[in-house]
């Protein structure tokens, strides 16, 4: 059997991530990415015609990594503990998630005023939102969370909470520790519990 070859596009995307995290998206160029890979610019443009095409591909990798983290986090948990674990995937509590946050923020800032990028950013965010809605639907059907909760709205609120906590770690000098970040999230999710299920 032939040995599967690594996806060269993923290698280029990974190099782009490193440059973005280190230098910011505005200073990320095809040439800078080629230098990061120790190759010629022609190698990079062979896989991506221009910077925007590469940025869109890298943005999809952000979404894929977050989806993977959410799936792993919830694999061995049930109930509201599973919801907390999935949402914790958005919190910059370890080096991998800190890198994802920096790349995500860079994309968001770069997308403002660029309709195609912003629409793609919204589409990617929508996939993650749908995962949260599905989890809330399951919890509500199991009577783990209150029946009066509007799931679509609550998904937005939960994502706004974790996104706000994450951004706060970049803005505030006296930032929340990883333990405090998870404590805030846990405290909020506790407020969603169905009093009927707690009494059982």
Explained architecture:
The N and C termini lie far apart (56 Å). With 200 residues, the chain is mainly α. It contains ten helices and no strands. It has helices spanning 8-23, 30-37, 41-47, 51-74, 79-88, 95-111, 115-141, 151-171, 178-190, 195-199. The protein is 74% helix and 0% strand. The chain has two domains: 1-49, Homeodomain-like (Arc Repressor Mutant, subunit A); 56-199, Tetracycline Repressor, domain 2 (Orthogonal Bundle). Residues 1-5 have low confidence and may be disordered.
Task: Describe this protein with a few key phrases.
200 residues; mainly alpha; Tetracycline Repressor, domain 2; 2 domains; disordered N terminus
Number of domains as seen in the coordinates: 2
Helix share bin: over 70%
Q: What's the total count of β strands?
A: 0
Uncertain parts: 1-5
Strand content: under 5%
CATH class of the largest domain: Mainly Alpha
Q: Label the structural class.
A: mainly alpha
Radius of gyration: 19 Å
Q: Look at the structure and give the mean pLDDT.
A: 88
Q: Would you give the CATH topology of the largest domain?
A: Tetracycline Repressor, domain 2
CATH architecture of the largest domain: Orthogonal Bundle
Largest sheet: none
The SSE order reads: HHHHHHHHHH
Distance between the termini: 56 Å
Q: Count of helices? A: 10
CATH homologous superfamily descriptor of the largest domain: Tetracycline Repressor, domain 2
What would the principal axes of the Cα set say about the shape? elongated
């Amino acid at each position: 059997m032939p040995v599967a070859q690594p996806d060269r596009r993923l290698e280029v995307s990974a190099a782009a991530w490193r440059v973005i995290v280190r230098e910011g998206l505005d200073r990320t160029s095809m040439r800078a990415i080629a230098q990061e890979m120790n190759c010629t610019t022609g190698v990079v443009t062979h896989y991506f015609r221009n910077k925007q095409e590469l940025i869109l591909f890298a943005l999809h990798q952000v979404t894929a990594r977050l989806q993977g983290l959410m799936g792993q986090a919830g694999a061995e948990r049930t109930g509201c503990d599973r919801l907390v674990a999935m949402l914790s995937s958005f919190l910059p509590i370890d080096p991998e998630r800190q890198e994802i946050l920096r790349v995500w923020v860079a994309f968001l800032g770069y997308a403002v005023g660029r309709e195609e990028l912003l629409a793609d950013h919204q589409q990617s965010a929508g996939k993650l939102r749908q995962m949260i809605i599905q989890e809330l639907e399951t919890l509500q059907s199991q009577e783990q969370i209150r029946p009066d909760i509007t799931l679509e709205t609550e998904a937005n609120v939960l994502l706004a909470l974790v996104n706000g906590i994450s951004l706060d770690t970049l803005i505030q000098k006296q930032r929340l520790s990883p333990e405090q970040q998870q404590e805030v999230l846990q405290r909020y999710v506790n407020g969603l519990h169905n009093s009927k299920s707690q009494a059982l």
